[in-house]
Amino acid sequence: MTQQEPVIEQVPFGSHFDYPADRPPPPYERERRELLARYGRFAQERDHVITSYLIRPSSATDQLVVELFDATNSQLVVTCATLQRAGAAGVWYSIGTLADLARFLPSPTRNILVLPAEPSSDLDGLCAIRSITPVWPVDGTDTFTSHQDQARRSEPLFYPNGEPSL
Hints:
Layout: E1 7-11, H1 27-45, E2 50-56, E3 64-70, E4 75-79, H2 91-102, E5 110-114, H3 121-129, E6 132-137, E7 144-145, H4 147-154
Parallel strand pairs: 4-5, 5-6
Antiparallel strand pairs: 1-2, 2-3, 3-4, 6-7
């Protein structure tokens, strides 16, 4: 038996999502979608090329949806509207979604988990061992940050010839 390749279709960002359109979304899903839209605007305002993908794995009947892929930085982005780990909408579910979708995207792809607020050090550690970068909005704005961004901003400037005199 020959292995078939998955069918991967690129679609415009925001044109297709993995939820039923015929019924109102629960509050968690509304919050997750808003977080996704905010992060999408954040990336687009920085001239990043973002897109979405529909993926049908070989011999599968269901379709996977990559809601946001930042082609400029080769980043797979998944949003989670809670900092809770367990449950159908929790961080564990989002980490599993990243792992599942990343299999079909070109390597190297960075995995980004957009959260509603800064994660605890324990949750940050969980993401780190799974090679996931958590990001979150800054003070309710449409600007996002991560611990990596914060570390870069707080590092002292390096002057190869010593500090300049004032």
